[in-house]
Amino acid sequence: MGTLNWTVTNYSTGGNKNIQSTKHGLTGAFTSSTSAAPVTNAVFHPGQVVTVSASEEMWIDFGGRTAAVGTGHYLPANFPMSYEVEVGDAGAMSAIDVA
User: Fold this and answer.
1) Are strands 3-11 and 20-31 parallel, antiparallel or unpaired?
2) Which of 74, 77, 93, 96 is the most core-located residue (most Cβ within 10 A)?
3) pTM for the predicted model, two decimal places
């Protein structure tokens, strides 16, 4: 079991996609397992930026799809990653431990 920490914000209102807004929407932590599960309260909208960090290796997926080992986005342990939510990927995020 690991912990997935996540936070969501928007891009800069000035149009610079290299800068995130200081306005945070949601933040949470989720205890994962080797069974895929929806991440509690993690529902995202197009254009938002989701930053995630995992205490151990995990796979995540967006758009209400179920994460599975080998599909979605791989998260190495203790290495923050940021994702822009695309139109087809809005909705819930799910997570599963690698092992």
Assistant:
1) antiparallel
2) 93
3) 0.85
14, two tokens: 């000035």
pLDDT band at 17 (very low <50, low <70, confident <90, very high): low
Q: Beta strand pairing status for 81-84 and 73-75? A: unpaired
Residues 6 or more apart whose Cβ sits within 8 Å of residue 92: 38, 39, 42, 43, 62, 63, 64
Please give the Cα distance from 58 to 83 (Å, whole number).
15
Instruction: For residue 89, give the 3-state DSSP assignment.
Output: helix
Per DSSP, the three-state class of 28 is strand
